[in-house]
Amino acid sequence: MFPKFINFIIQLSGFNFLKNYYYIYKKNKMSKPIDINLMKTFFPTKGMGEVLFTSTEEEIIDILGKPESREINDEGDGFNSIELYFDQHDISIFLHFDGKIFEYMSIHSNNLLFNEIDFSKENKTTIIDNIEAYYKENKIEIDLQIEKDLPEYIYTYNAIGLTIWFEKEEIVDISVELPQ
Q: Domain check: are 104 and 41 in the same one?
């Protein structure tokens, strides 16, 4: 239950959106509340929200709270990953290693804010147009690779580290990582 005093202050101030921050903060025992829109915002070459592509597992947990599950995946040939699943935020984070050496991080979510649009609320054409507009605005040569892995189509934008899996017009998965 939301404490009566805090609820009264929030209602009085007109900042009802603060309830979402408080609930997530209390439920996950995080060091500070989360800005939900910031958490879903992709910043090419930096990360997603406050999670940077260089963040450690401890830093990620400090930002997003305790994950619902944590798995270690042996990918063979000395490669493995630590997979953190934050179901309450619809985010999965994979920390990829070569032996004990950190290689890269990938962040997966079906809800992504990028270049001022919410991918979960837009159609495929609008999303692709938005990404191309970002490339144009930032004077980046479009490097789109489309892979057909039926029934999915995989759109990879290497220069910004963005991959989107579409099944027809629907987003199946989105992955962001530091561009190679």
A: yes
